[in-house]
Amino acid sequence: MVNQVLLVGNIGRDPEVTAVNDQDKVTRLSVATHETVIKRTGERERKTEWHEVVAWGTLGEAVKGFHTGCSVLVQGRLQTRVWADFRGTKHITAEVRADRILLLSVGSREGEAARKGRSGAKGERLQAGASANEEQAAVAPAESAS
């Protein structure tokens, strides 16, 4: 059996890092993918699908500097979790547990970073202000976390 997800899209919400316990951190981000569908009238319509992505450990730390508008490739697996809100109502959430996240472009803040002297040539995959070690961590397989 195979559970594999591959997304290419844009970050819709800046990554948020949360400490789960004294040792583990999880980073959550939202990625939008788009597809064009043709209606019965022949008119083209662009549909957007939003995906919740979680990245654990060093992978999450590496992507926390990414921002809304960045184009990314996410490779991982689909997982569901059950949780209860403050009223005790149970919810089921589906999310992509990332094994790898690759920054494809820095998006709308590219001009801002260039003015500050922190971005490279167009097409460079290193995030603005990141070190080469952070880039390696962002594309390396994620470590296991429970």
Could you please describe the fold and organization of this structure?
- The chain is mainly beta.
- The chain has a single domain (5-139), classed as Nucleic acid-binding proteins (OB fold (Dihydrolipoamide Acetyltransferase, E2P)), CATH 2.40.50.140.
- The chain is 14% helix and 49% strand.
- The chain contains three helices and five strands.
- It has helices at 57-63, 110-115, 132-139; strands at 5-19, 25-38, 44-56, 71-84, 90-105.
- A five-stranded mixed β-barrel has the order 1-2-3-5-4.
- Helix 1 packs across helix 3 (132-139).
- The protein is globular and about 55 Å long.
- It starts with a strand and ends in a 7-residue tail after the last helix.
Features:
146 residues, OB fold (Dihydrolipoamide Acetyltransferase, E2P), mainly beta, single chain
Please summarize what this structure is:
The protein is mostly beta strands and 146 residues long. It contains three helices and five strands. 14% of the residues lie in helices and 49% in strands.
